[in-house]
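Q: Could you predict the 3D structure of Major facilitator superfamily (MFS) profile domain-containing protein?
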Amino acid sequence: MNKKNIFFWTLYDFANSIFVIVFFLYFSQWLVIDKGVSDFWFNMIFTIVSIMFLFTAPILGSMADKNGKQQDYLNWITVLCFLCLLVVSFITLFLSNQVFLAILFFLLANYLYQFSFVFYNALLHYIAPREKWGRISGVGQAGNWSGQVVGLLITLPLASGAVYFVGEAGRAQTFLPATIIFFVLSLPMLLFFKLPKQEKVIDKISIKDEYKNYWKQFKELIKSPNMGLFLLAYFFFNDAIITVQNNFPIYMQRVFDVPDKTKAILMISILVTSAIGALFSGWVSDKIGLKKSLMIVLGSWVVLFPLLGSISNFYIFLVLCILMGFFFGATWAVTRATMTALCPKEKLNFGFSFYTLAERFSTLIGPLAWGLITSLFISFGSTRYRIAVIIMTVFVIIGIFILRKVEIKKMDLAS
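A: Sure. Here are the predicted structure tokens for Major facilitator superfamily (MFS) profile domain-containing protein:
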């Protein structure tokens, strides 16, 4: 086990989570609340990203499995993501009336960010032995949540107006610092991470042939034991969790009229418990098994979503939100380790493209349902957001039902 690689791998997740939380919290509100873009069109950004991802990610993932260049692809995608974020930052600061351009480059940055995880997640197989996949996945996920805490702490004074940077005041102040910090901290991964030598490398690959074989390769992938069922289950339960996560700042604003400073403090509390959840669940999943751990986590979401949607007391809502953080961390720590255990080694990048794709298409149906509920029931006022959260429980239940049929061999679990 290469501890340096684990450090660089974790630091990379720490780095990109800084810009993710800042854009997630403030860009969504900059668009919907400050610029008047509807909830529906904000959610359609993620739907478009999903469609783009479908036609590109599996191809490049398959190529990486054959030519061993996943690290090169990761590096280039990271640089392009940084440049797109840089453009968004300058538009919001100096050309804030150019909302369409801001949306366009945010869309591209989101697409590239998601693309990077095709290669990033697949590296778990190489940096840790099988019996430690759960805990190392948890360490990486804890790095993610810790980075989000740091991102919020750094940008809170800018968003609240306590510190003025440059350009348009308010939420737009946060994007440029987060973007620069992300790129600086991601450099060690780009420069110093050493991927183990690949067993076989094919130098010349035809993109045309890759597209021709797309469907054939996909069918071969899901023929692997339980792979198809796991991806389908992941699609459904992740649908609910990602949709709630993306809309959470707007939910707090519309339902409880929470000021930005309180939102940031609450988000920090959630992220701290997320880091704890990632570390704890990763360790537990290596002890009691990946599937059992995941079933417990998903069962908790089935209880939590209806509670979040029905509670009217703000202080009880705060307690539930902090508890929700624990399960955020646990969910993605365990699912990544599960995917690593199920996916054939020779198809890791291709497999993780569909893992990420399942996550992306989770932002197709979920946001569509959320957007329709909040648009069609506009006369219900803030209650429409409560209904949307409760409806997300249905997707989790479907995911649990499918996951029950997934079996993971004993050799993929800790003894």
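Q: Anything worth pointing out?
A: The longest helix spans residues 3-34.
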